[in-house]
C-alpha cells in the first residue's frame, strides 16, 4: 500500500528489548468528497508508522515533511482512559520517499541557497568574469 501525507511530529528512535532500533512517526493523510447534499467533506486519517531498516532517517523525518510511504497497514486495538475500546492504524513502512516541507528540509534549503550565492573566495562587490 502507498500513502502520501505529512508528519504530525518529529520521528523518534526506540530500542526494543532485543536491542533492535525502530523509527516511530505519525503521518496524517487528507481526503475530501462531496456528500449527497453537495457539501465538501474533508477527512483526515492518522497513521502510526514504524520503520525498521535504518535509524538514520530520524534526522530527516521532521514535523510537516511531506512523505510518500510504501508498506503494509495493520490495526491495533486499545482501551481509552474512559474504558472505550478504540483502534489505531499502524503503517509498517518499507520505503520512504521525501517530498520536502519539514523544518530541517527548509533549513537545509536555506543554507544551500546562501552557499550558492557567495563562494568562499568571493568578496563583496567583486565582479565576476561571466
TrEMBL record:
Residues 107-122 have a biased composition (Polar residues). It comes from Flavobacterium magnesitis. Keywords: DNA-binding. This is Single-stranded DNA-binding protein. InterPro entries: NA-bd_OB-fold, Primosome_PriB/ssb, ssDNA-bd. The keyword Metal-binding does not apply. Residues 96-130 are annotated as: Disordered. Pfam families: SSB. GO terms for molecular function: DNA binding. The keyword DNA-binding applies.
Amino acid at each position: 500500500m502507498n500513502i502520501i501525507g505529512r508528519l504530525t511530529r518529529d520521528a523518534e528512535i526506540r530500542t526494543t528489548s532485543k536491542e533492535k532500533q525502530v523509527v516511530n512517526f505519525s503521518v496524517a493523510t487528507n481526503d475530501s468528497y462531496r456528500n449527497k447534499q453537495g457539501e465538501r467533506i474533508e477527512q483526515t486519517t492518522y497513521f502510526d508508522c514504524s520503520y525498521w531498516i535504518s535509524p538514520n532517517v530520524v534526522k530527516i523525518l521532521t514535523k510537516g515533511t511531506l512523505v510518500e510511504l510504501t508498506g503494509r497497514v495493520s490495526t491495533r486495538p486499545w482501551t481509552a482512559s474512559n474504558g472505550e475500546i478504540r483502534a489505531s492504524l499502524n503503517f509498517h513502512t518499507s520505503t520512504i520517499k521525501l517530498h520536502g516541507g519539514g523544518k530541517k528540509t527548509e533549513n537545509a534549503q536555506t543554507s544551500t541557497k546562501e552557499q550558492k550565492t557567495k563562494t568562499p573566495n568571493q568578496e563583496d562587490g567583486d565582479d565576476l568574469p561571466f
